Amino acid sequence: MGRPARTPGGCAVTAAALRARLARPLPLLLALLALTYGVAAVGALAAADAGDVYLGLRRPGWAPPAWLFGPVWTVLYASIAVAAWLVVRHGRADGRGRRPALTLWAVQLLLNLAWTPLFFAAGQYGAALVEICLLLVSVGFTVAAFARVYRPAAYLLLPYLLWVAYAAVLNGAIWWLNR
User: Fold this and answer.
1) What region, left, alpha or beta, does residue 11 occupy, with left being phi > 0 and alpha being psi -120 to 50 degrees?
2) How far apart are CA 66 and CA 92, in angstroms?
3) Distance of alpha carbon 29 from alpha carbon 140, whole angstroms
4) DSSP string, 75-110
5) What is the largest CA-CA distance in the chain?
6) 36: which of 74, 115, 142, 174 lies 20 to 30 Å off by Cα?
7) What phi and psi, each to the nearest 5 degrees, are found at residue 22?
8) Half-sphere exposure of 110 (CA within 13 A, CB side)
9) CA 28, 32, 38, 44 torsion: positive or negative?
10) Phi-psi region for residue 124, left (φ > 0), alpha (ψ -120 to 50) or beta?
11) In this predicted model, what pLDDT tens digit does every residue of 15-69 receive, in sequence order?
């Protein structure tokens, strides 16, 4: 009875704690998806004419077409939510490791939210470059923290990390070309 079990991540938890954590995985996943897509929606509302702004900018030849951003971000936001869900489900029952990882996750989500209105609505390409560099660092720290809790969750964030790195370079190039 109270005997420790092992989670797939190798952490010892009591059987009761493990059952409680796994009892309602779908509502938690849906809440995390709603939160991440909520961030996307707020960003979209803050920069409703983002497509027109992007097309009106001088961009490097390697810039992606405007239509690509929607599908890419749709997949990335899902992976951001699922990664957090995995950390919650597979973290230690006492929360050690999981709390700092989820705090970093929340920070990167707030930084993600701030970039779109800064770049598109305010047209502050230099400030957006600084902000996206902070986002890149934050996502890197989040990946590292998630890896300590549950490695597959960290793997889910790697495409996001790469996309943000690419977006930071693109932001820099757009800032330079539109000074």
Assistant:
1) beta
2) 42
3) 23
4) HHHHHHHHHHHHHHHHS-TT-TTHHHHHHHHHHHHH
5) 67
6) 174
7) -90, -5
8) 6
9) negative
10) beta
11) 666 556 555 678 999 999 999 999 999 988 887 888 899 999 999 999 999 999 9
DSSP 3-state assignment of 118? helix
Tokens of 11: 């952490």
For the chain, report the end-to-end CA distance as a whole number of angstroms.
Answer: 67
- Cβ neighbour number for residue 74 with a 10 Å cutoff: 11
Cβ atoms of residues 119 and 171 within 8 Å: yes
- Tell me phi and psi for residue 178, to 5 degrees: -115, 25
What is the pTM assigned to this prediction? 0.83
Nearest to 178 by CA among 101, 100, 125: 125
Q: What is the pLDDT of residues 59-98, one digit of tens each?
A: 999 999 999 999 999 999 999 999 999 999 987 766 678 9
| CB proximity list for 63: less than 8 A, separation 6 or greater | 170, 173, 174
Contact in structure between 78 and 86 (CB atoms under 8 Å): no
Q: Alpha carbon of 19 to those of 5, 77, 88, 118: distances in Å? A: 10, 28, 13, 43
